[in-house]
Structure formats: structure tokens, C-alpha cells
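Page header: ASSEMBLY MODEL / two components / 1820 residues total.
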Amino acid sequence: MLKKVITINGVTRTVIVNPETSLADVIRKQLGLTGTKVGCGRGQCGACSVIMNGKVIRSCVTRMKRVPDGADITTIEGLGTPDNLHAIQLAWAVHGAAQCGFCSPGFIISAKGLLDTNPNPTREEVREWFHKHRNACRCTGYKPLVDAVMDAARVLRGEITKEELAYKLPKEGRVWGTKQPRPSAIAKVTGTLDYGADLGHKLPFEKLHLALVQAKVSHANILSIDTSEAEEMPGVYRVLTHKDVKGKNRITGLITFPSNKGDGWDRPILCDKKVFQYGDAIAIVCADTEENARAAAEKVKVELEELPAYMSAPAAMADDAIEIHPGTPNVYFEQKIAKGEDTKPVMEKADVVVEDSFYVGRQPHLPMEPDVGFAYYDEEGRLVIHSKSIGLHLHHAMIAPGLGIEPEKLILVQNPAGGTFGYKFSPTIEALLGVACMATGKPVFLNFNMYQQITYTGKRSPFFINLKFAADKAGKLLAMESDWTVDHGPYSEFGDLLTVRGAQFIGAGYNIPNIRGLGRTVCTNHAWGSAFRAYGSPQSEFASEVLMDQLAEKLGMDPLELRYKNVYRPGDTTPTGCEPDVYSLPELIDKIRPKYQEALERAKKESTADKKRGVGVSIGVYGCGLDGPDAAECWVELTKDGVTVATCWHDHGQGADMGCLATAHEALRPLGIKPEQIKLILNDMSVCPNGGPAGGSRSQVVVGNAIKAGCELLLNAMKKDDGTYRTYDEMVAENIPLRYDGKWAAPCTACDENGQGNPFPTYMYAVFMSEVEVDTNTGKTQVVKMTVAADVGVIANKLVVDGQIYGGLVQGIGLALSEDFEDLKKHTTLVGCGLPYIKDAPDNIEIIYVETPRELGPFGASGVGELPLTSPHASIINAIYNACGVRITELPALPEKVLAGLKAKEAAGK
Amino acid sequence: MLKKVITINGVTRTVIVNPETSLADVIRKQLGLTGTKVGCGRGQCGACSVIMNGKVIRSCVTRMKRVPDGADITTIEGLGTPDNLHAIQLAWAVHGAAQCGFCSPGFIISAKGLLDTNPNPTREEVREWFHKHRNACRCTGYKPLVDAVMDAARVLRGEITKEELAYKLPKEGRVWGTKQPRPSAIAKVTGTLDYGADLGHKLPFEKLHLALVQAKVSHANILSIDTSEAEEMPGVYRVLTHKDVKGKNRITGLITFPSNKGDGWDRPILCDKKVFQYGDAIAIVCADTEENARAAAEKVKVELEELPAYMSAPAAMADDAIEIHPGTPNVYFEQKIAKGEDTKPVMEKADVVVEDSFYVGRQPHLPMEPDVGFAYYDEEGRLVIHSKSIGLHLHHAMIAPGLGIEPEKLILVQNPAGGTFGYKFSPTIEALLGVACMATGKPVFLNFNMYQQITYTGKRSPFFINLKFAADKAGKLLAMESDWTVDHGPYSEFGDLLTVRGAQFIGAGYNIPNIRGLGRTVCTNHAWGSAFRAYGSPQSEFASEVLMDQLAEKLGMDPLELRYKNVYRPGDTTPTGCEPDVYSLPELIDKIRPKYQEALERAKKESTADKKRGVGVSIGVYGCGLDGPDAAECWVELTKDGVTVATCWHDHGQGADMGCLATAHEALRPLGIKPEQIKLILNDMSVCPNGGPAGGSRSQVVVGNAIKAGCELLLNAMKKDDGTYRTYDEMVAENIPLRYDGKWAAPCTACDENGQGNPFPTYMYAVFMSEVEVDTNTGKTQVVKMTVAADVGVIANKLVVDGQIYGGLVQGIGLALSEDFEDLKKHTTLVGCGLPYIKDAPDNIEIIYVETPRELGPFGASGVGELPLTSPHASIINAIYNACGVRITELPALPEKVLAGLKAKEAAGK
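Prediction written out in full:
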């Protein structure tokens, strides 16, 4: 042990520490200052940044033996407090720079370190600083962070006051459509919001820390599991295997499609007979500390018979491939699409036909917060599981039978989540926590490290697509033929649903009268497929949007104008044969056209031999909803102080609280209540009704409509004959109920066997434009500007919507250029997976909104979250071609791939 | 478990808690907010006060199931921060209201609760509030706390600004003699100072919590100890007994007197053959939590053969009493006093002789912070023990052989201490921590609860005194005969030293030419005797000061004038036959005389049949030093930023940091450095030289002189020929050493076999005057005013010295009227032990200083800490007699005792 006297946030404290312990652990676990977050744990994300003796350091990789005696340390708690924010914290809130907020303390501390040394930085210096200090953000696209630093610097230099910077509610008192910061912003920027790991550390002492024994192979039969040595390890309380699972030991995929050949009971909670993928959980060690639990987990002996591992769909589809789940074929679901006439004759007769193959791979979600959760029994004897779940009621149904618990005895709660981007549409550790809590009767806590987060949570499922367009010589699309193969990993949950997305979104945005195609879901031994933002569309639209550019080239047309000619106009239908909700794509293209012309000229002017510039466009379309029937519930209650709204509007970090508040406030405006009078109770099944999962950009539309409905019921009840409203006291005096259940169901139908139907109540539309620079010596692509014209309906909150778009675009850059999770050895860290840092994103991002009110959206709103990741990567890939003539059809477009293209082109003398 | 959403200090947090856990534990251990302190753990001290939903509550007795969901809680961390103090915190610092500081967060929070509801309270309303909310303080005498609240209220009402209230260094830059708040004040009032329990909870997770198996009988042979069941209890790591102690398993008393019949090796670390007193430690359970350790401790089976328990000196001296330590007589030490001529003939011839018997009992120390400490191995393999020790080097020598550790492998460190008042002059848990750390190799943490603090730490040793004065009819004292018996409990450490105090302080203050007497130390089975403020003098001077009043009555003289006639004047000698350092008692009496006259008149005027008022006086004298040879060391080093001073000036809470700073700053004034440039390194044996223990009011004199000497050596080295001083850079350039060892030794001699000698370098003098009101219906005495005229030499810091005097006086009220630790069943809580609350203390306390410079004190200073508890209780007892004619000679003067006196008087027709 070392005794050190250090000054933390101006307070001199004596600490007794282990010399090998990280400063982050001492700050968080010994001193209880959980404002400092630990993301990657290896210095790649900067969430743990603190200032030590004037320098910004990453505390997760700073061992206490390297902390000098007398060190002066500043953590986020040392900046400002909720009622007296530091200028940087205020600017962070005002600019919506805290989305999930997990990286905010680290960024804010880092910004403080910058402004302490350079009070007047340029935007580029801010970007350089964050890049150098490895501050990573997965939500915001970085631009709002730079905006915030620039404004904070102005405050600190005395050029504006904090009051001037602060957000002010407009005079008319409206929240809807404004830039009001989300309710959780203040807690996020001050480090006072407790995420799962923070809450876990603050659990009562008797909690058990869990560690998983995980498979290190991708496919095997389990011969035996020996826990005896592990049980004797220090601090171990129990070691659990499948034998300790009370129920069916399976997570059910809640199969919705009768044609699915699996039964949906294919995912074990704890592996019993087989290992299906790398990382599969085989045993759980319950111990007093995470360190002891992990050390004991190493001692569990698992005897395996290795089986051939099918690491991609083609391998699993091979004739000699064995069934991964014996009894179920590896190709377990198929989805046709058939719209209009047979395409074969159309293709044969068409003026122009283009065809190509496309591959979009296993994009990793890379949230800054690794998966984390805990479980305990509540006072009523119910098992309560807290996690990052974005579908509490959904996951409840998926895990209860496997656990063997009566449904009414299981409660799920969502903790504040440091980003999910969809991976938490799947249960991850919920059932494991449940097993451990049920077996031990004690509170249990499981905190993945970043390696586990990356290697053992679901990923975007790769699509292998063959696509063919027929058009007339004027560029009018006549037919499309599609074939898509979905590598969904070993677990079937939602695999059929995802496959339907191919039918819905290959060619979306365009009126294609005749379509034929077939998609299939394939079971493999690579990462299980989970939801990821824009679910299915980045794969589907990549194919159609790149092929559109190929068609334009063949036609000798401008790619934007080709699109303009084909986008939905009244009378047109979507690939699923239904009418779009609105027809805003022509207007969106009209808005972007002048920018596009300028960009083309700029690219020409700024291209050099070594640095080729290019411009690419793409159309993005996505539907809001669960696909077919979709509904949500809430309750709204008048209280003495205002109105309470309760529902499950799950928060990935996107701003569920703000959506809920803005919607409720708008609905309640006749009462003239202030936003702070609306109390939100969210995402706790013990009190909140089913709002449905937070996926498919459905929440604002579906949950929003339920909230609106609930508020309207309350208003109706409060309304007097003279049109004024009863007060709380009057309601009580007249014995009128105070609480109302708000419900809403989307008037939608799932697609039929031909992929035809009206699956979504509203859609979102965008035109993306990317300007890139390709280094012809290295093949490296830099996105220098992105422009997007978007119609997400009436905007509920400008900060949230801007933030979603910025963040989605930069995830699109990652998808286009660097992100992958194919190699189980290499793709295991944030850097290894190709996470974009700030200098990988352009500072220049321009958003143009067209706010077409949606009939089925509350107050005209549609969704937003998926839209910016539908096809921005296609615009980048198209821009690369525009810049240097290299057409990439398999993502990511790594420098070596582009370089190889350049060399091939050179060899061909083109 | 319960999930609660509560707002703490403006931050809404989710907590998962056990419904039976206290709010205090959740705040401290789960949320890491250790500003809230736990003292008694049962709602009697208010250290744990927090504001919940607008009400001041004691969080230690508030179970989480009683905390409403949504509760709004404010802790000390929610008021101000070190650089932005709340007005109450500022006022607390400015008024020296934080001494040990352990009660400060609770008081400050309580005061906030008051001022939130009553912004303009009267002093009496403040007192009522604190009394009602059970806010207890053992250091300050309460008056400064009321002063602080009144000033804070003025700030909050806007009548003065915080800047006006704040302390300002005088223009000439002098610290010495000012009211500068102590360096630790800011940390204390903001709750950011970590005491032992706070540091313990923040130790790395692998720490073991210790619980003691303690004797529940007072005297027994141990037949067997069975730890087997305890070892199987949950969370238990090891159960340790005497067999696990590597060394001699004894704490040595470091015998200094050759005539002592014991060998000083009588106190076991862990009992092996015998139990000597209630609470003796028999085994140590090492477990993961305090709760588990305590539960397992209940399961250790100890087979005992009970022996007769000698619960007082007379019982242990009876002819049939067995030897408590076989081989050593129960009366193991005697001290004679023989000064001047044989007293027998003087007594026979004297005009007036008075004689009586007196008893002062087992005053408990009652610090607000229970005993606490921890131990670990440092990086150099040394055993480091942190505790409340106020004598690190002393305790090192006392425990090292018992532990069986090489002295250089043992380091002791003092934690910030929440009050000791002397009990920590004895080792308490240090050796137990050492045993546990050595046996397990792990960090270990032992935190007594208040029951253990009270029942198993040393107490003031009772004196049974027979005393006789002879005087001439003019009131001049001619002779004194004394006999005193000291009940020192079972352990001999310092028992001889204490017995010598009878010779030194019975009759102190008066020139008594002829003295004969004998004192003895007796081993008993009641609480072991430890140091307690004023050590020996409250017993000794109680006898002589009450007997002086009896003499005055017999002579028909005024008690003050009788004293005036006899106090030291030039040519007089102390009872030990030496000259006093100064002769300030006549002046002190002169100062108090007019107050005394007024008081007598006031008492006469305000007395009623039911409420009798009276006035009493007493003289208090105490020496500063360890008794005989005494020395201290420090080092002083010039640094780039200023000067560093290192020593052991241990802090009970009295203000060691301020004494050290004021002395060093005064010595370094020729350099013109600012106080903040002086860095103090205190009370860590690994870096600080031996300053000696903090007892006998020696620190300011002995350690102060060492600091002065060290600073002077540095100044000499820095001085240039022209009288100016070299800078740091010049010193380095000229290769002149930067660090100097300061040493000082007192030119004193211990008393000889006749009790004669010159044991102390300086003395302190006081005249106490108490005004009381006795309720003749209940016998209850209320002290309505106290006045003290004091000469503690030149005052080093006015806030510290005022604070010591206020606090000592109120401990004197407790000693006089309520405090006891005789009954092992009843005297086990703060309330049970008779702790004075605020309304038991007068708000009206007046201090008159005479600052006679001391030749041997640094810059003329003497000590202060012991003085206010030398004899204030005697003045109260004399005032009771003055009020109602009842003479109490055995303390405490409980209402029933006074009532019995009143009834006896009535029966006797007086």
C-alpha cells in the first residue's frame, strides 16, 4: 500500500492505495467520485480524463504509483455544480453536446485543460486537442462539442456572459420545436448522472460481482464443465452453470414469422450442450470483487469438442456444412419480394441494365459505455434487473421462461445508458444477472470491459446483395431484381424481421414499378445479429444507392438528377407497394442541388495529383415503427405540482427525456404549465406501462402519440363547460379521476409473403452529400464536408434532432471507411474496430431541414434516429468514385482497398 | 432491496438499498459522501444530521425504509465548497467553532435547518434548537457555536457581507496572537476532512473489517477459546487469538519509577490467561464487512472461570483480595510528599484545622468520534498503523515488543482525530490492528461503536483523598496533611505518574510551608486509567479547593479573600518545593474580585425559595510538560515556495496545526513569508521527528520551542553579513544546507521520593468563578454563568485558546454535575454518561486574560489545554454550597445527591 496526500478538486486528501491500482479506480471506487467514467479501460476513449498537475491525463491507464505525492487533480466534480455550472458545462448543455453523456465528463475536463493553456483556440486547434487526447464520442458527430468549446471560451474570455449563453424558454412558453436542453443534460455535464457501473458500485456491500466464463472458440460441443478449482479461489461465493438455471435456459426470439424454420429457442442463457459463437457464456463466477471473480473464471475448466466454425453466410450455406442448431437448417428463413409485373421480360427489353454485388459487414456499435447491469430482489420478492435494455417489456417476455420465473415476479429497469445504437434491442446480460440473483439470492453486478462489449454483444448483420436495375434511356427506373443473404450469426432473434428489411429498403426512395427478389437469413458462428441504427437499411440502401450511381454513369446522367427523376412523387409507391406518407424527396433534392453544384466545382478546383477530391450523393429512407402492428401506452396524472407522465420511452442516449417532455408539454399547453412542472417517470416496469422498445425511430411517433392521447384525456377531464380547466383541487373536490391511460396503435400491416404491405405509420427522408479527399499515395479517404437535406417531419427538439443527425453521419463515415468486426483477433478494441475520432469526422456538417408535417405523427413529427445512418456511407463511396474512379462495393473502404483499386485502374491504363 | 430516487444536494440519484440500512450508511458508504459523520450511532450526538424534506434529522437512526421516495436531502457537501463557503461554514471557521471538527457538519446542517425556518433567532432560540436536535459537542463549550450562528444569520439576512465576516490577516502580517482560523478549519466545516472512519471506508476493497470478542465480565481466568464456529460464519477471513500474536503479547507501560512493584508488562494485547476488566479483547474476527465480523465475533466461545471483581480501590485493598496480576500486589506504587517541617505538631498548635474526605470519579472522555484506526504494509514492507494516537513515538515503544516487530519496521500515523481529551495518550486499538495486519498480511480496519468507545477505552482514575489544612486565625495556611488513593484499573501504564500528581497538585496555588502526605496506586478491575485533560489535578485540586471553602467558613472569611491571602507570591514555593514560573494569581484574583462582588449581589437578588442562587470560586494550577525531563524535535526546511516544518505535534482536535503555524510563522517573521507559504507535515513517523506526546499542555511549550529553535537555525544559515537573508536560489547556489533539526529540552527534574522537585518548565494559572442555580425541589443544579481569569502566558492564537477554555469549563460542569462511568450497565451511552448538552452549559462565559510572558515558553507562551479543567468543578460545588448550604464532596453532584443534602439539612433544622 501507498499513503499519498493528493489534492482532489481543491481538497487535500490522504489516500491509502495499492500502487498498481489505476487513478480512475481510486477516484471512482475509493473516493466515490463517479463523475469520472471508465469506458475502454485502456486509454482509447478519454472518458476517464482528469487534469493532474495541469495536464489532461487518462486516469484509467495511470497507476497510482505514477501519481506524484502532492498531485493536484481536477475531476468533473471540481468544475461546477448543477446550480453553478462551469462555462464549459453550460456550453455543453446548450449545444446538446451531451447525448448519452458518458463521454461528457472526459471531454469537458479535456476542454478545461485546453482552455487553461490556450484561451483562444481555433476550431481546428480544438479538434487537434481532442484528437491528441483521444477523447472519443459515438453520439454527437463531434461538431457540437467544438461549438460548445468555442462558446465556453468566449465566456471565459469575458466576451459573453453565462447568462447570455444560457438557453432561455421563448416568451410564449413553448418547448416543442425549441433548442431546450434535455432534462438530463445538467446531470450529464456535471458528472452527477449515475450510469450502470456507478449505480453498481454504489450497491450495498453484499452485492456479488459476476464474471463470465466465455467460449474462446466459435463452435463446439461441450463435453464437461469443471468448476471445482474456481470455487476454491479467493472471494468466490458461487460458480454457476446451466445446471443452476431454473427455467428453460433459453432466450426466446419471440418468433413472429410462421415461415421461420427455427423455433426461436436457440440462444442459451448459459451454454449447456454447445458453444455457438466466440464469447458465449458457459459459467458465471459470483465473487466479492470483479478482480476475484475474473481470476476465478480463468480456473473453470471446460472440455470441448471443436466443430467447424462457419464464420460467414456462404460457409454456413455450403453443402457440407452441418446444422449449427441441429434440426434447424442453417438457412432458416426466406423473404420474397414481388411487386408489379415479372421483371425478367422488363430486364430483357430495357434500354439500360446495371448489376453488381454488394457487401456491408459487421459494423460494431462501439458505445463508450460497456454493457453493464445488476439485479436484486425487491421488498415484494420480485427479481429486479437493471440494465441498458431499450425494450423492457420485450426483454421481459424473452427471458422470463428461460429463467423459470413467473412473469409478475420479474421487473426490468433501464439504467441511464452510455450509448447503445441498437445493440440493446437484444437482451445481453439481463438473463445472466437473473440467473445469478436467483441462484444466490444476493444483489449481483456485472460490468463488461470493452473487450467483452466488443466481442460479445450483437453486431450489425452483414448482407450479401446482388442487385440489378433496368431503366429507360431517360433514366426512368423500370424494374429491380434483388437477392440478399443475411448473416445473422447463431441466434435467430429478429433475424427474420431484419431479412424483411431487404424487401422494404433495397431501392427505397424510388418508384420502381416492378420488383422481384429473394432474401434469406443464415445461421453462422460469427457475432449474433442485433439491431443497429437504421437496421437493415444501411445494407439495403448501400446496394441501391451505389448501383444508382453506376446506372447514372451508364446513362451519362448526373447522379443527383437521375435520383430526382425517380424519387417518390404522388401516385408512386414504395417497394412494399404502399404510398409514402409524404413526398418530400423532390424538395430535398431541390434544396441540395445548389450546394451540390458548388461542391462539384470546389472538388475540381481543390483536387491535386496526390489529393483527389470528389462529391457523392445518396438517398436515405427509413420507416418509423416496429414493422406492422405497433402500439404504446402511458399514463398521465394530474398532481398538486403539475402533471406526471409515465411510460417506457427507452433512452440509448438519444434524448428520450426530451422527446417525452416536449410532447407532453405541447399536448398540455392549454393548461399553461411550465416544463419543470412535468415530472417524467421512465423505463421502470414496476411503474411504467409498455411503451415498446426504442428501435426503428418509433418512439417519437408511437410513444409520442400515446403521450399525446393520455394528455388529451386528462385535458378533457379537466375541461369545464366554459372552456377553462379545473385545478387539481377542483378535480379532487369533484371526485374526478386524476390519472389517465394514453394508448396509441399504428394503423399498419406487416408485409405479406411477397413483401407487400404498409408496415410503417411514417417515414423519414434524406439526401446525403459527401465531399471527400482521397490520398492517392495511401488510399486513405478523408471526408471533408457532409451536407444533408432531411425531412423528419415537424421537429420536436432542434438540439436532439441535430444531434441525432450529426452522430449518425459520423457513424456512416465509420461504416464507409473503417469500422468492422470480422477479425476476432484484431477487431477487439475501439481503435481496432475503426472508431472514428474527431479528425476522422468533418467539422463542416450542414443540415437543411424540410419540415413536412406527418398526419400520423404527434404534432406532425416523424422519427429521426435511423435516418442519418440509412445511406450516408453510400454517398461517401460514390464520392470516392467521383474523386478517383475507384468503385468500392464491399465495406469498409479501407485505404488498402482504395489503393488496390487505384493500382488496378493504373494497370488497366484508365 | 429498495430502489429509491432521492435528491441529494440538488442531484437526483437512484439508490438501491437495504430497507434496514441507515440513511447515514447509505450516504457515507454507498454514495461516498463522508462529510456526514457518525458519532454515537443512536441519535444522541447529531453528528450525522442532514436535512430531509426541510427537516433536520439524524441520519444514523433513519432507516432507508422510512426515507420517502423523492426525498430531498441536504448534507454538508450540499452547502458550500472550500472556495465558496456557505455563510454558516464561514462563521464556523471565523469563530473557531470547529475544534476537532467532528461535530461540525452536523451542527452546521442543523443551523441551516434553523435559519431556513427562523432567519432571525435569539441566542436562546439557537440553544433551544441545538438542544432539541441533540447536537452535541465535546470541544467548544458551545458558546462559539452560538456566536457563529448569530453571525451567519446576519450574513444571510444581508446585514453584513461574507467578506466583512471573513478573517483578515493584520496589515503587519503577524499570525501570532491573532484570531486566524486554524489551517484545518475549512476542511472541517465543509466535511472534506477525512477522519479515521472516512479513511477506513476509502481503503482499497481488500481491507478486512475487524471486530473484537470482548470480555463481558470484569475478572476471570480464561479456560479455553473456541473460534471454530466463528470461522465458518459468512465473510470471515480469519479469527485471531493470543496464539496469533508474534511478540510478547503485552503493551508495556514503560515504567519510569523504580519503586513501582509491577514490571509494566501487565496489559495483554489479546487476553491469554486472564480477563482483567470488562471489554478486554480476547479475539479478533477479520471479515469482509463490519457486520459480518461482529456477527462472527458473537460466535467465539470463551470458557471462563470467574474471579471476584474488585470494582474500586478499597475493594482491591481489602485483606482478602487476591492479586489481580499474580505476583504484583494490588497496591503497587506509593508516593510520599514531605515539604518543610513535620505537620503533626503544626496541626496540633494551629488556630484552625479543617479536614474532609473527597472523591472524584471515573470521568469518561466522551469524544464525539469513537476510537478508530487501520493498518497496512507499505511499499517498504513496514507495518503502518493509523489511529487517533496522540503519542506516536511513545506508543511505538509501548507496542512494538508485544507485536514482535523490529522497531524500524513499525510506523505509526495519526489520523485527524475527532476529540481525545487524553484517552489517546494510551494505546487503544493500535496493537490489535498490528496483530491483525501481521497475521493476515492485509489492510485491516477497526471502527469502535460508541458503546465500545465508552466501555473499553481508558477513563479518568478516581482519587480517594483525605485532606487536612491548618491555618492561623488570619487565614494563613500553615500545614497540609494529605492521603490519596488512586484507583487505576487493571493496567499500570502511567499509574505511578498519575499518583505523583497528588503530591504536585493537592494544595497547588498556595504557599503551604509544611506538607506531609502519602499517595498510592491501586490495581482494580474497573476501567483502566488513562490520561484525561488536567490529569490528576481535577481530583487533587477538587479536594484542596473545596476544603479551602470549608476553611474560609470556619474562619468566617470570604473564600476569595482567603485564597488571595495564600496564593503564590515571590518567595513562596509550590507543594513540590520549587518556585513558580510567574506570580500572577494575586492579579488574577484582583481582576475577578469586582465580578465576584457583582455575582454575589446578583445571586442574593435572584434567589427564590425554589431556585437558590450561589457563587463559588476556585484556584486552578497546572504544569506544562511531561513531568521532569521532556524534549521535542522537528525539522525545518527552506523550499522553493517557502518553508516546510515537520514534527509530531499531535492533535486531539485542540489545534496543533494552528500552534505549529503560529509558532513557525512568528519565528520566521524576519523572512517576511506569508502563512500559506509554511507547509506543515505532522504526525507521521515515517517523515516526522519525535515531538513527544500531546499531553500535559506541553506541546506549545516543548514542541513550540523546538520549532522556534529549528527556525532560528535556518534563519542563521540564511542570514547574510549585511543582515538580510539569502533566497532559496542563493542558498542552493552557495551550497548551504536547506534543512535544520530543531531541538529543545526542558530544564526540569522529576520529583524525588518526598515529592520535591522542579518538574515543569512553565505553569498555567486560573481563578474560576461559577454562578449556579439550585432547584430545591429536584436538587438539580444549573450553571448560569462562568467567569475565569486565566494566565496562560502570551497567547499564540486567540481562537484556539478561547476554544480550549470554553470547552474545558463545560467538561468541568460535566465532571461536577453529571458525568460518570461507574455503572457498567447505565454509563454506556453519551446520555447515560452525563454528557452536557448545550442547555447544560451557560451561554454566559467570560474569560479575562493576564498574559504574563513565560521565560521558558516560546515567545512567552505557556500551555492552555489542561488549565480550564483543573478545578472549575470545585467552584461549582462551592457555589452549590453558597446557594443552598449543601456541601458535596463526592462527585458528580447529581440532583438526588443535592436533594438528599437539602433534606438532611432540613431534617437537622438548619
